[in-house]
Amino acid sequence: MKRIVDLIAEELEPAFAARGYDPGYVRVTLSNRPDLCEYQCNGAMAAARAYRKKPIEIAGEVVEEAKDSPLFSRIEAVMPGFINVSLNPEFLARYLQEMAAEEKLGLKEAEKKETIIVDYGGANVAKPLHVGHLRSAVIGESIKRIGRYMGHHVIGDVHLGDWGLQMGLIIEELRDRQPDLPYFDESYEGEYPAEAPFTISQLEEIYPAASAKAKTDEAFRERAHQATLRLQNGYAPFRAIWKHIMAVSLQDLKRNYANLNVSFDLWKGESDADPYIPGLIQRLVDQGLAYESEGALVVDIAKEGDAKEYPPCIVRKSDGAALYATSDLATIVEREQDFHPDRYIYVVDKRQELHFIQVFRVAKKSGIVAEETPMIFLGFGTMNGKDGGPFKTRDGGVMRLEHLIRDINEAVYEKIREKQKVPEEEMEQTARIIGLAALKYGDLSNQATKDYVFDVDRFISFEGNTGPHIQYMIVRIKSILEKYRDLRGGEETAPIRPAATGTEKKLQLSLCRFGEVVETAFYETAPHRICQYMAEVSDAFNDFYQENKILAEEDEGRQAALISLITLTRRVLDTCMDLLGMESPEHM
After folding, report:
1. Given this model, what pLDDT does residue 474 score?
2. Distance of alpha carbon 361 from the chain centroid
3. Helix (H) or strand (E) holding 257
4. How far is it, in rounded angstroms, from Cα 438 to Cα 246?
5. pLDDT attached to residue 381
6. Rounded CA separation 559/494 (Å)
7. What is the pLDDT of residue 326?
8. Is 478 among the domain residues?
9. How far apart are CA 339 and CA 326, in angstroms?
């Protein structure tokens, strides 16, 4: 289906042309003054200079041509040259009925289906997920889902940190604790144990202990560094330990990401890119891009016209070790070989912007990625506590993500227990569904690049701009539909009718923008647009519900039409929730 703004534009273009004006000036937008009109065209303002006329004169001529259009209930020219439009209720009702008949609610899928890599997650193995991993996970998951809804082939990659110094630290700490393990016996020639010599809880204690030791014990840190190099060079005993670390960590990471309703198509890490590094380095050298600087190998990335200076990208340290940039570039080589992506989206802390500018520029300068391929860095801000600083536990530590989820679920559980509207057997599951929506919506409703304050009390509120409030509107619709079925002995269907009240039209106007909002959210990589839209639809439905007594409506035909309208409202809200990785419960 075409978007409403496009249909309005198509109606106004012949009117511009009929009066001798280039129809290319027609641009239609949603009105920012809904008290005056519903949509607005500023084409006369843009055309005025070219045709040396007052904007209001051009606007008046266009309105005269278009005044009999069946799309409009009102069209008028207002100073200094705006064309204000309100839609014909009959046209709007037909549009919504057509939208309701389509599986994707009238969304216009992308004409060119792209293969898109979304790099999000970024967890380090051997460490528990903490609140710092939340934003990448939930923003990336929503971008992946929105892209797929648009018809693209979207591949989500967790891109684990599994190949750095932390591995050497764990290996050497394990050696100090259990020196008799076969991995540390140089003369051992048998098979290494199939079972890991540690549990996930032990592993999560080993790493911080080793990290702390390395800060004060230079000899230990050097041992860890050498162990890392031996691991990366293929030393079999350390590869065996690494496989144990991966197996134990992945099981725990998958469980925790699943609790967020976040999933990945690829569980690859830095280790998967390692085989591609030698070829990458050779390519950069052969192309004359990489050169030695103070013993390191670097690539210049500065471009003419840069507003500031960018340092060269280091691709190999003076001791021969690879860096994060090397690993990320090698990962791109692997992705190009395996998937030939049309677009890359990296969902990463905004403080890593310089790193990704360097990586993207080297990738394109070397021809690893075609110059025209979009490489998008979606840098997100910090989740802060009420004190304005980074969100911490009460004792000042970094909070584990599973503990944060647990605390929110418990707070929601107490809230719904007090209301006594949820059956006892559903309370725990309902608390989890509401708690997850509170957490995700609290994050996603903010523009990704901005910092925000994490406020549990506000996020779990059933009122205001919150996930639970939107869920409550959906549950209210479910309740009405259930009562209607009981009342009528089934669910009669009827076409959506032209709006009879102001709040009914307001709801219809909100619903018709679904496809436009999803498109915008995708092309701007902005899931907060969908949050804003859900809040708008929920508020419009709430106003409509207060004014229109659906179940008490005596006209059965109108009642059935209203049921069709709120059924569409539920479908729109449910779809938006799913695009953001949320759902709604049966009762609240």
Report:
1. 98
2. 24
3. helix 236-259
4. 32
5. 96
6. 9
7. 96
8. yes
9. 20
Q: How many other C-beta atoms can be found within 10 angstroms of the C-beta atom of residue 397?
A: 9
Burial of 224 (0-12, 13-18, 19+ CB in 10 A): buried
Q: Say whether pLDDT at 410 is over 90.
A: yes
- The Cα 40–Cα 18 span in angstroms is 20
Cα 435 to chain centroid distance, Å, stands at 18
Q: What is the mean pLDDT of residues 334-357?
A: 97
Q: Is 381 helix (H, G, I), strand (E, B) or coil?
A: coil
Give the domain extent around 220.
165-259
CATH number at residue 55: 3.30.1360.70
Residue 491 binned pLDDT confidence (cut-offs 50, 70, 90): low
DSSP assigned state of 131: G
What is the DSSP secondary structure assignment for residue 111, as one 8-state letter? S
Where does the pLDDT of residue 315 fall: very low under 50, low under 70, confident under 90, or very high at 90 and above? very high
273-291 per-position pLDDT tens digit: 999 999 999 999 999 999 9
Residue recorded with tokens 């990625």: 369
Domain boundary among 227, 259, 291: 259
Q: What is the pLDDT of residues 187-229, one digit of tens each?
A: 999 999 999 999 999 999 999 999 999 999 999 999 999 999 9
- The domain that holds 152 is classified in CATH as 3.40.50.620
- Single-letter amino acid, residue 64: E
Q: Are residues 543 and 568 in the same domain?
A: yes
Output the six-digit token pair for 533: 């839209």
Length of the chain equals 588
Give the tokens for residue 2: 């075409």
Q: Where does 87-164 have alpha helices with state H?
A: 89-100, 134-149
Token pair 């049921």 is at which residue?
563
- Which pair of tokens denotes residue 247? 């197996």
What percent of the chain lies above the pLDDT cut of 90?
Answer: 93
Q: What is the DSSP string of 547-560?
A: H--TTT-S-HHHHH
